[in-house]
Amino acid sequence: MSTYSGVQDEDNFLLDKGRSRQVRRRSLRLLGSMIRPVRAKFILTIILVALSQAARVAGPAIIAFGIDHALPALRAGDNLPLVMAGAGYALAAVAVGVLTASYINATARLAQTMLLDLRRRVFRHTQRLSLEFHEKYTSGRIISRQTSDLEALRELLDNGVNSLVSGAMYMTFTAISVFLMDWQTGLLIMLAALPMWFLTRWYQKRSQVAYRASRVASARLIVHFIETMTGIRAVKAFRREKVNASRYEELAEDYRTVTVRSINLNGIFQPGLVLIGNVTVALVLLAGGFRVLDGGLEVGVLLALLLYTKRFFQPVDQMAMFYNSFQSASAALEKVSGLLEEVPSVRAPKNPVALSGAAGHIKFDDVEFHYGDGPVVLPQMSLDIPAGQTIALVGQTGAGKSTLAKLIARFYDVSSGQLTLDGVDLKDLSGTDLRRAVVMVTQEAFLFSGTVAENIALGNPGASQADIEAAATAVGADEFIRALPEGYDTDVNKRGGRVSSGQRQLISFARAFLADPAVLILDEATSSLDIPSERLVQRGLQTLLGNRTALIIAHRLTTVKIADRVLVVHDGKVAEDGTPDELIAGNGRFAALNQAWEDSLV
Ligand SMILES: Nc1ncnc2c1ncn2[C@@H]1O[C@H](COP(=O)(O)OP(=O)(O)O)[C@@H](O)[C@H]1O
Ligand SMILES: [Mg+2]
Fold this sequence. Notes:
ABC transporter transmembrane region fold; six-stranded mixed sheet; elongated; binds adenosine-5'-diphosphate
């Protein structure tokens, strides 16, 4: 299934070393572009973190001073040093509290600002990308860009600063203090850092594998779930419940297994860390104790060193655990930056040619077209459609009728040759002009959430209620709309507001009528209507077509016969071209089609 391969593609893609440098650069570029607008606040936050960690490290040093200097002074009758030590410690404690609170607050706000901006960018960009992109990029993948990937980045931005940056600073400051107090203990800690480093590397490698496996397993699980639920009608119609359920159970079991595996790794890593930390404390105590006895080290300093040693390794745990979030955040960054660097294949012109009031003259000049890098669908199309002509496109499924229509709506660009509207290349028209001039109604007849009136008004956002009702009346939709629970104000997603697919099509006709384009394309737009509704639309259709240029793709000959001209498309070429009567009088495909239709009536 394509969606599964989508998940795997992404994973292989990540492992491909050749492209990884380029991908990393792209990720960093994105991260840079996120930080740049807030860089002053970003630097301020880092400073807050540094100050808070310095205040934390001050504690043990103050204690050492208290024991080694303030206590002897107190014995000698001077209590000022002790008061100073006490006050200093309290001050440091308050500073840690206040600074920590403020940097946590600052990071949260900063992270949310950056995410909000990114979220908007991802949405706008995804929406702007061409159909070609949306056809190859599954909706599941787009959804995860907006949800889990942004969530992973939130983790990075929130906890990244809190655990990684603060941890690293804390360890650095502690190491500096220890070396300043007693370099021998400093060396001892560095020695202990060695096994700690190996253990952490071991953990990171294993957990990265386990983590990836769990991401793949969870993605598969989600994809299967989404596929089952979005295809629920087909699932029920073909009694796929059992098969789907057992497949789901398999996938859920896989997910459980890999998750347990990654939890087991923590079961080794965390106790290992604690063990190394405590053994180091014992060694520092042992070595330091003897030196205190010799008079080579003061008691207070030893106590401070023990406190430092004990706390030195504390952030490692969090930092290593964070490694996975970091990994998934960088994967998310790779994917989101990849999405953001996709360019629309159908591009807006730099210097658009203005088109005031299109007439609707369409011309294909030696047009060749293929989807993406697929096979040629239209090998060589030359076609002149004068303004105001009503064209019926007929032909077998897969002949290329919809493709022709989509090219006129510029959902895709022609691969070679030229396609013009009123003599202007479609590529030179602004999006606004093009959308005003060309409207395509498809079988899909998508309704957005909102009222019926709002859905019709999409065709022309400035329209008044009277315009909307007139449009609905013109296409024969007024009657059923008035019969809805709240008439034009019925919400199409609420109970009672649900309309049949035929009614949806009538609404989309009204929408097109209101848009009043110069060129109207109906791609099997009447095919889900029953015969009586189609009769009704037939009348509306005449009004809808008016004197615009129209391309109608239909299978019913009654619809075809209202056309001025029929084009029979076969294998991406125009096989027959003429008025309905001319073609019926001949002995081509259309004549045969007409004969078959008449036979079926008898
Ligand atoms: N989005 C697409 N991507 C790749 N190939 C497509 C796409 N849409 C249609 N095709 C191919 O183009 C050919 C013409 O399709 P289409 O224009 O939809 O035919 P018709 O509308 O006449 O049934 C078919 O071979 C079809 O497989
Ligand atoms: Mg089609």
